[in-house]
């Protein structure tokens, strides 16, 4: 028997603490000999990233307990923060990792005498010091190759990046001069090199401001001397309007690259002499994605000649590509979304996968099995708490129609709770969730933060608005010079359609987003009358301050050149699009959440907006969190933010959520 109760007031076993415990996913899975290692989130331990080891016998352990925190700050979003190799002298595995608090490289040999990690890289007193990402251990050279990000001053853009080699013997721990630079700093951004099987050539990707890596990059190639120096670097493919997202060498010496020269990130074989590129599997699908973090791999070449790939239109799945024939065979399994980075070892492929009923898990496929007859198997998971599936929503993928008839991709999560039903005739409130980026995409997978709301009677609609990835370059380019317009219009079109068709209560619609999604939420509240309230998380709100005022980091410091337009040519557009300039148009309550250590979207953005709101009588709350950067990681922060959001909706939508602290709204 179900209890009749208003939407939003339903009781649920999915509380804020459980949702917080399930926040984040395993990431950067890779192999060290026969072992598989990866990182996992630890919200209850200050939000650190743990390094997890799965031995060949299947036992799983965390060899580096707190306070070790395996996470890079390169370009602030980080990247591949560890790498390992089996030492040739039989001592066992060697793992090199980045420790988040000091951003130094450390070497760790589990089981060896004196097993405490030892530093490999030096510290620097200049600016934010030295940072490292996209690691590759090269025991044959006694080095770890990686990207070095080096600050040259105190400003956020006083920085250079090169490909570097750090000695494994620790000689550079106190000597910056012992770090060997492999590339010059002719390019603002680089990814770590991929060394050819014969060790004679290195390929990597580079790009420069104002382009972002999904706009235009260059595939570089250099000869490698006996001493390990890069000689005669040249560009093979790429340019201002071609995004080369990944490059790899196949075991036979073939150079492979994912490039969107056809309008989709497809895998090409690139001639190392002429630069001619042959599409190995022409499809209107993406075989790669946006390089927000360094070291991501959407494809990996196997010794057999096959290439393990992630591909799809929207959601990506795991497949095996035969480069000789172009034949693509998908791996079986119930997962609806695969994510990288992919790793291969022998006949094995390792990645992460998830579905509407499971969060991301570490999954292994053995390609030696005939015809892929055996499904991939789960070998690791960051979360082990059981959740009753009866309280999980049944998501639905939808394509909506926006202005001018354009397609808008979204997914709906309707309210679901077996113990409760709404009164006859009542329509549920819905919250439009906007992803960050904005050049990104939100996958349709289990998210207990969504289930926290849907199990209480509040629907969620995630919108992959124009500009999102996964649907080709044309869809991605819709946001060029249109940020604050296309994203706002697409979200409003989804919200209005839900109300018009009777799925949602049109008087009880909200919008929430973080980072770029916080921008869209703020812009929506200042330019539309669709929403009854909103939640704005670590947002961009003042474009002029964000760019011209140096209120962000180097990686995105010229991102707006494409999203808004060249600042020198359209300065008024930066002012006129900014929600801070239109704070007087806000007429509905809102909640604003901000990490005080955020260097990407700094607290001053919120503070400036709130100063314009002061005295206008708009109910609102502003919550800040010490120790939190861009995106929340700590359990206490996650609990406070989701409970505050539910309380806001209760006060605005007219229900009383059980056992949730009251969010105090000021005017």
Number of strands: 39
With strands numbered from the N-terminus, the spatial order across the biggest sheet is 31-32-35-34-36-37-38-39
- Average of pLDDT: 95
Helix content range of the residues, please? 10-25%
Question: What would you call the shape?
Answer: globular
Describe the structure.
With 667 residues, this protein is α+β, with helices and mostly antiparallel strands. 13% of the residues lie in helices and 32% in strands. It has an eight-stranded mixed sheet, with helices on both faces. Strands 14, 15, 16, 17 and 18 form a five-stranded antiparallel sheet that branches. Strands 2-3-4-5 form a four-stranded antiparallel sheet, with no helix packed on it. Strand 10 and strand 11 form a beta hairpin. Helix 4 packs across helix 5. The longest helix has 19 residues, at 635-653. It is globular.
In short:
With 667 residues, the protein is of the alpha+beta class. It has ten helices and 39 strands.
Topology:
Elements: E1 3-4, H1 16-21, E2 27-32, E3 35-42, E4 48-54, E5 60-61, E6 82-86, E7 93-98, E8 105-108, E9 118-119, E10 130-138, E11 143-151, E12 159-167, E13 180-181, E14 189-190, E15 194-195, E16 201-207, E17 218-224, E18 230-238, E19 244-249, E20 255-259, E21 266-270, E22 277-279, E23 299-301, E24 307-311, E25 317-321, E26 328-330, E27 337-345, E28 348-355, E29 358-366, E30 377-381, E31 396-401, E32 407-413, E33 420-421, E34 430-434, H2 448-454, E35 459-464, H3 473-476, H4 486-500, E36 509-515, H5 516-527, E37 533-539, H6 543-547, H7 560-563, H8 571-577, E38 590-595, H9 603-613, E39 620-625, H10 635-653
Parallel strand pairs: 1-33, 34-35, 34-36, 36-37, 37-38, 38-39
Antiparallel strand pairs: 2-3, 3-4, 4-5, 6-7, 7-8, 8-9, 10-11, 11-12, 12-13, 14-16, 15-16, 16-17, 17-18, 19-20, 20-21, 21-22, 23-24, 24-25, 25-26, 27-28, 28-29, 29-30, 31-32, 32-35
Helix pairs in contact: 4-5
């Amino acid at each position: 028997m179900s209890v009749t109760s208003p939407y939003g007031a339903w009781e649920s076993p999915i509380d804020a603490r459980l949702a917080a415990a399930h926040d984040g996913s395993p990431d950067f899975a890779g192999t060290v000999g026969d072992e598989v290692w990866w990182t996992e989130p630890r919200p209850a331990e200050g939000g650190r990233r743990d390094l997890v080891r799965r031995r060949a016998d299947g036992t799983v352990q965390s060899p580096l307990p707190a306070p070790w925190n395996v996470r890079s700050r390169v370009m602030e979003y980080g990247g591949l923060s560890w790498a390992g190799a089996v030492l040739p002298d039989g001592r066992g595995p060697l793992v090199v990792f980045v420790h988040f608090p000091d951003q130094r490289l450390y070497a760790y040999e589990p089981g060896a005498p004196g097993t405490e990690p030892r530093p490999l890289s030096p510290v620097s007193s200049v600016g934010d010091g030295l940072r490292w990402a996209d690691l590759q251990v090269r025991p044959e050279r006694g080095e770890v190759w990686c990207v070095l990000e080096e600050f040259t001053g105190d400003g956020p853009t006083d920085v250079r990046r090169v490909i570097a080699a750090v000695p494994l013997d620790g000689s550079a721990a106190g000597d910056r001069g012992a770090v060997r630079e492999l590339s010059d700093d002719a390019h603002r951004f680089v990814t770590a090199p991929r060394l050819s099987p014969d060790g004679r050539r290195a390929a990597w990707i580079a790009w420069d401001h104002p382009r972002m890596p999904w706009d235009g990059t260059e595939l570089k190639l250099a000869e490698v001397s006996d001493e390990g120096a890069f000689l005669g670097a040249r560009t093979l493919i790429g340019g201002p309007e071609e995004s080369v997202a990944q490059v790899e060498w196949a075991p036979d010496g073939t150079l492979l690259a994912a490039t969107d020269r056809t309008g989709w990130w497809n895998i090409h074989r690139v001639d190392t002499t002429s630069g001619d590129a042959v599409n190995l599997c022409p499809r209107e699908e993406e075989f790669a994605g946006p390089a927000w973090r360094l070291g991501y791999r959407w494809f990996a070449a196997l010794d057999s000649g096959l290439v393990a790939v992630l591909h799809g239109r929207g959601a990506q799945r795991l497949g095996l590509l035969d480069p000789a024939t172009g034949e693509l065979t998908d791996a079986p399994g119930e997962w609806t979304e695969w994510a990288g980075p992919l790793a291969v070892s022998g006949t094995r492929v390792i990645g992460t996968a998830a579905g509407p009923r499971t969060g991301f898990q570490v999954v292994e496929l053995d390609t030696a099995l005939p015809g892929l007859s055996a499904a991939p198997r789960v070998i690791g998971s960051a979360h082990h708490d059981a959740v009753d599936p009866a309280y999980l929503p049944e998501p639905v993928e939808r394509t909506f129609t926006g202005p001018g008839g354009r397609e808008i991709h979204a997914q709906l999560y309707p309210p679901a709770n077996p113990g409760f039903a709404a009164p006859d005739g009542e329509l549920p409130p819905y919250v439009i969730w906007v992803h960050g980026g904005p050049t990104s995409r939100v996958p349709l997978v289990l998210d207990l933060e969504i289930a926290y709301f849907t199990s209480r009677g509040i629907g969620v609609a995630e919108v992959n608005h124009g500009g999102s990835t996964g649907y080709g370059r044309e869809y991605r380019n819709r946001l060029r010079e249109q940020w604050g317009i296309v994203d706002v219009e697409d979200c409003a079109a989804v919200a209005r359609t839900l109300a018009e068709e009777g799925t949602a209560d049109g008087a009880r619609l909200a919008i929430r987003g973080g980072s770029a999604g916080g921008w869209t939420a703020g812009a929506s509240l200042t330019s539309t009358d669709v929403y009854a309230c909103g939640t704005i998380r670590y947002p961009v709100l003042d474009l002029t301050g964000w760019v011209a005022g140096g209120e962000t980091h180097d990686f995105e410091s010229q991102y707006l050149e494409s999203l808004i337009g060249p600042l020198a040519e359209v300065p008024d557009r930066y002012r006129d699009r900014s929600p801070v300039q239109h704070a007087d148009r806000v007429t509905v309550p809102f909640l604003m959440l901000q990490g005080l250590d955020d260097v990407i979207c700094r607290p001053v953005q919120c503070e400036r907006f709130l100063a314009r709101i002061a005295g206008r009588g708009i109910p609102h709350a502003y919550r800040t969190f010490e120790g939190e950067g861009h995106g929340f990681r700590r359990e206490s922060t996650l609990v406070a933010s989701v409970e505050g959001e539910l309380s806001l909706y209760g006060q605005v939508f007219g229900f009383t959520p059980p056992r949730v602290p009251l969010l105090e709204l000021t005017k």
